[in-house]
Structure formats: C-alpha cells, structure tokens
Specification:
single chain; alpha/beta; 9-stranded parallel β-sheet; globular
Length: 274
C-alpha cells in the first residue's frame, strides 16, 4: 500500500468564525499532521478582522510556514479554486498561488473549472481553460508544483468531462484532486471514478455526504462546499483507502467538513482504517 496521509481542509472552522491561526492550533491539538489552507487574492474584510480562515496571497507565506512549524503540522496543499474559463481572473490568481505554494513548502495547488462565464459556449470555455492552464502550468513546472484539478462544476460532473480538461495541456505537473463527495453527488460511482483516475491522483478531498443530503441532492448538483464527518455518511472509506493505496505517490486525505466536532470524528474514523 502506498503512503496515505490524513489532513484537514481549513474549512472546518469557517462557521466557527475563527482565524487561520486558531484553526491551525485546533487541528494540531486534535492530532492532525497535515492541513490545507485556502488562499485569496487581495484583502478580505472578515479574514483581516480574524473572523475567517483564508490567507491573503499578499501576505508572506513564510509566516504561515513558521506557524505550521510551531504546531508541528505541514501543508498538504493549498486550495485556490477559481474559474479556469475566465483567464482575466484565474491566470494571475493561480500563478501567484503557485509561487506562494513554493515558498510555503507544499507541492500541490488545488483548483477546479469554476462557475461558468456568461455568454460563452462549451467550446469557447475549453479554449479559455486551455489558455489559463498553459500559463499556470508553465509557472508550476518552474517550481515543481502540481495542479490538482477537482470535480466541482458543470464540466467535471462526469469522468469524461474531467478527462477532457485534464488533457487540454500536456504537463507532468497536471494532476487530479479527487473529491469523493462531489463525485457522489454528481450521480457518479465515486469508487469506479477514483480507480479510473489512477496515478494522475495527487490529492483527495475526503468529503462524506449524509443520507439526507444524498436523497435530496444526488444527481441534481455538481458538488457541495463541505460534507459531514467521515464515517457518518454514505462514502465507503475502506474502499477509498484501498484504491488510493495503489497510487505510486503519497496521497493526503484532506478532510473537508463543516465543524470542529466533525473534524475530530473524521480523524478517529480514518485513523482506524489507514
């Protein structure tokens, strides 16, 4: 079995109105050794007021690195989701995220195709996404940073749609950040899809989905911001771990849940299986 790490996406403190530093401390005290920060472009009122966990790309990543070292955690990746079909938004944002990741000391930047631009058709969107990815992957190749494409919106709701975007640009730095919950809610078989990804996998958003949400939304949405505690929903984590174990690089299961209690329960469940 390949190396499987257990990490925590910092979204777990969003509804607790806590800043990034408090989230890092809580993750470490629960026993997590990997975290996934979310970065944003410019300045954002709530995070500057320390009510929100996201980190500005304008700040020094070495400060985040020092904070993580203080609490004994590492960054499995950074979350930098943006609309790939809008180069006016995504090229600068993602290239800055790549440079930030390199100084932070992580090797993965996660993103998705984002909300569709208005007034364009699918063919145009894919041309625009190819341009964005060409620019971003050139920056990523210089720094040995992998781009983790996640399924989250209209074009990645199927394995074929995700493959099409993945294949727009040929680069050794192109990879897939597989979101278990999003794949399930899109109406797909998440285990078959995960196995199909194979060694293109670079990172996993470990997102579980409640039975109630499954009954209400499966096949009707392309994803959801966060899930429930791993082990309390519909995802078979033993099967997920079995498939990931075949990948030829270390893979982090980055728990994507909505509360501190869910984060603690997720760690207990996943540790019992890994």
């Amino acid at each position: 079995m390949g190396e499987i790490q257990i990490g925590l996406n910092m979204e777990f403190v969003r509804h607790h109105d806590l800043p990034f530093a408090a989230g890092v401390e809580k993750a470490a005290r629960m026993g997590y050794r990997y975290i996934e920060p979310m970065v944003h472009w410019g300045r954002e009122l709530m995070s500057e007021a320390q009510y929100f966990h996201t980190q500005s790309l304008f700040d020094d990543p070495y400060d985040v690195r020092a904070l993580c070292e203080r609490y004994g955690v590492e960054c499995s990746s950074i979350s930098a989701h943006c609309p790939l079909g809008r180069p006016d938004v995504s090229v600068l944002y993602l290239t800055f995220a790549v440079r930030y990741a390199a100084e932070l000391g992580t090797t993965i930047v996660n993103t998705d195709e984002g909300v569709k631009a208005e007034g364009t058709d699918a063919e145009t969107d894919h041309v625009l996404m190819k341009y964005t990815l060409t620019k971003v992957l050139r920056c990523a190749e210089h720094r040995n940073i992998r781009i983790g494409l996640e399924q989250h919106q209209q074009y990645t709701r199927t394995p074929e749609g995700m493959d099409r975007i993945y294949n727009l640009v040929k680069s050794p730095m192109m990879g897939i950040n597989f979101d278990t919950g999003n794949a399930y809610l899109a109406g797909q078989d998440p285990y078959k899809w995960l196995a199909h990804v194979g060694n293109r996998l670079v990172h996993v958003h470990a997102k579980d989905i409640t039975v109630q949400q499954s009954e209400a939304e499966r096949g009707k949405v392309t994803g959801t911001p966060v899930g429930c505690a791993c082990g309390e929903g519909v995802i078979d984590w033993k099967e997920v771990i079995r498939i990931i174990g075949k990948v030829d690089r270390p893979i982090c299961l980055s728990v994507e849940c909505g509360t501190i209690d869910q984060a603690a329960a997720s760690l207990d469940h996943l540790k019992s299986l890994v």
